[in-house]
Amino acid sequence: MRILIAPDKFKGSLTAAEAASAMAEGALRVYPDAVTTQFPVADGGEGTLDAAIAAGYEERNNAVVGPILKPVGASWAIRKDAFGGASAVIETAMASGLAHMEPTPENSLRAHSYGCGQLVAAALDAGATEIVLGLGGSAMSDAGSGALRALGLKPLDAAGNVVPLGGGFLADVVALDASELDPRLSAVKFRIAVDVQNPLYGPEGAAHVFGPQKGADEDAVEKLDAGLRNWVSLLREATGRDVNVPGAGAAGGFPASFLAFTDAALEGGFALVAGLTGLAKHLGEADLVITGEGSMDEQSLTGKAPIALADAATAHGIPVIAIAGRITVTPEDLAKHGIVAAAQLLDVAQRKDGAPDIADAVANAAKYLAWATSQVLEGA
Fold this sequence. Notes:
The chain folds into two domains: 2-41 and 278-379, 3-Layer(aba) Sandwich (Rossmann fold); 56-270, Glycerate kinase, domain 2 (Alpha-Beta Complex), CATH 3.90.1510. It has 16 helices and 13 strands. It has helices spanning 16-30, 48-54, 92-96, 105-110, 114-125, 145-150, 206-210, 218-239, 250-253, 255-261, 269-277, 279-284, 305-315, 331-335, 358-363, 365-379; strands at residues 2-5, 35-38, 58-65, 71-80, 86-91, 130-134, 154-156, 175-177, 189-194, 265-268, 288-296, 320-327, 339-344. α1 packs across α16 (365-379) and α8 runs parallel beside α10 (255-261).
């Protein structure tokens, strides 16, 4: 039996690679002669870099400016091709992630993506001809303005001064000076992975929908939204492009500036990452797929990596088993995507009174994941 073990991360407890290792341990307890392939998956958000590295991309590290100016170490990855080009993978969360910032109203206005632009510059210096930008877990709501500033763009106020970094200052910008923008940007292909369809501004935009989780209170949300509206207008004046399109509101509107000043394209996150990492080849060789994530819920059914993988496997006639930290959708919901059996860690991590022990499940996720995988396979 050939088993493809391809989970997403179990957020807060296991990376996708760690989850795959635990699942493989559980599978081999039941089928010791099986050939297992561990293949972490991602949907273009956090975990995309890990998936790329697991697929053979070379990890690089750079010191960059974090979302509120404190320096941080940020990883990215690159792989050269046979034709003299190279593909780089950058996650916005590495340089400008919420993990690097306390979510307060003040910080929500100050947060920026300058460090992401520094990683783009590093990738260009390394010879990248294609750059994949994975979005998710971001701290900023600056429409990618900070990233472009790291690459030479100057947003100016009414007095001709460069405005401070951060989404809270975008409303003060009256003109854009692109005369020193890195000319290499026009020669590289940007592929931006998105898994949301939010526009840049408005009630469903970046500030209103995602700002509160970054610390923005009501006043900060309104200020950020006003800044994003102004930035769209300025980008239109400077480039002739309207970037307020579905998906532009992802990661604090990060795609907007790249859509304006480069030939960037928005792509579905799972399909993009699957193509980069060669998932189709492994899927074609599998007799069984085991996938999972921390929480399998209604949002998962909208196309998150495990469900998208299950759909792909079903199209090939391959049965799928899912293991998650918790599952809040019904077996019927999962069956529609070809998942023939599923289990949650909360069913095996229990207190003496039989109630789920959430803290134990998180702290010892690898142990319970291996155990749950074995149990499902024994009953499948």
